[in-house]
Design goal:
Chain lengths: 226, 226
DNA sequence: ATAAAAGTGTGATATAAATCACATTATTCT
DNA sequence: AGAATAATGTGATTTATATCACACTTTTAT
């Protein structure tokens, strides 16, 4: 870990690009950069948090360990902020963040973050925009969970990986079958079966972790209807 | 509907109390107040929105009509804002808001709202705090949906009505059985059965819409475990 | 290289809760 | 007031999907 020179950072957030030189100095003084390898925990459920986290590069999973099952709430791809609601709120992490690819992240002290909100309206504005986008995304997830059954949810997440995370119709799944189950709120066995079904129908081609989407339009139909 | 004098309003939001006199005048010029009776729609899913809505008094339900079922996303009690993420985002309402009690609301033009964010950091700060609280609440709802089965979710919502909405251990349900089903993501019949079961166990006393919580600690246990 | 551990696929069974069906009770309307 | 309509309760049946059980495969460790 090292204190960063935010002014010279090439991976500024949409909010941070609005900061003046002097404000960047303020930020730099309480901003610490860290690198996480695949599998590393960035922060842990139930731990106290007094930092906002900005993901510069990489991919993480947000997960909740509940009494019944573990849920992967969502995958978050850099660039984005993590932990704003928690750190602005009750300061106790409601979920853990674990890197599923090599990830670089900046830890920003909450007081500095609040100070920047106080002094720079353009900064605040971008934070508000990000919070709003998050809320709509989470909303969609929650609606999908109720409206669709497992087949549809699985299809939705495969499309999300293809369209938003990897921007390619073939990629290596960053999660094993059990984690995919946690992501689509189902069981390992069901996910295994449904992936086989999709392959039998020639909608996808799957070989271990390598996945190729063959018939995207049918997958989209399943995502909507199923 | 009438253009309001925001300066003299006794129901200012936590954000608005930070506004200076001149800023209140700006707000007042593009702020329209309206009264909604029980059952009235405040805004409709799929419609365009260029207003932020501030609920001064009352109670509303937010609902999504999906292909499979209707969901009541949540009840929102005044004072609170509605529609910030939508109006800041793609401007299309992802859900409807319907008054379930007499409700008064202010419609604020999005450009005025953005202007206030730009000129008053304390205003922005309070908006950020409200967005953060919303995100955590929605998060909890989503986790509960997966971790608990219907019995637990029903108990959770009864407690929410008692603790947060009515602040009393007896009240009239603002929703019929079918709407309660939409709220707990279940079916009318199941809700009906489970309410009877709770009554049989002397955990609640229910007579039509009137509900009295008799054994709160057992209800809390069901809410956590069930 | 071999053993141990972790991950995966697939059939059989169990289960929570939806759906169906219909009787009963409220509420609304003329 | 009486008819029509909506809301509710409750049993029977169905269904999606979890869970169990176990074989097979891949990865990791010694």
């Amino acid at each position: 870990m090292k204190t960063s020179s935010c002014a010279s950072c090439l991976l500024k957030s949409k909010a941070v690009v609005n900061l003046a030189e002097q404000e960047l100095t303020v930020l730099g003084k309480s901003c610490v950069e860290a690198v996480f390898e695949k599998g590393d925990t960035i922060f842990k459920q139930d731990a106290l948090s007094s930092n906002i986290i900005y993901l510069q590069t990489g991919l993480v999973k947000l997960l909740v360990k509940g009494p019944q099952r573990t849920q992967i709430l969502r995958l978050k791809k850099a660039p984005c902020y993590l932990g704003i609601p928690t750190t602005m709120g009750d300061k106790i992490n409601h979920y853990s963040a674990v890197a599923i690819e090599k990830t670089t992240a900046c830890f920003v002290d909450i007081n500095t973050f609040k100070e920047l909100i106080r002094i720079n309206p353009d900064f605040s504005y971008e934070i508000i925009v990000e919070l709003c986008r998050n809320e709509l995304e989470q909303f969609n997830r929650c609606v999908k969970l109720v409206q669709n059954q497992v087949f549809g949810r699985l299809a939705t997440h495969l499309l999300d990986l293809s369209d938003n995370i990897y921007q390619s119709n073939q990629f290596d799944l960053p999660l094993n079958r059990s984690e995919i189950a946690d992501l689509v709120c189902s069981s390992r066995e069901t996910v295994s079966r449904l992936l086989s079904d999709l392959a039998k129908e020639s909608i996808i081609d799957i070989n271990g972790k390598h996945l190729k989407i063959i018939d995207k339009s049918r997958l989209e139909k399943i995502s909507e209807k199923g």
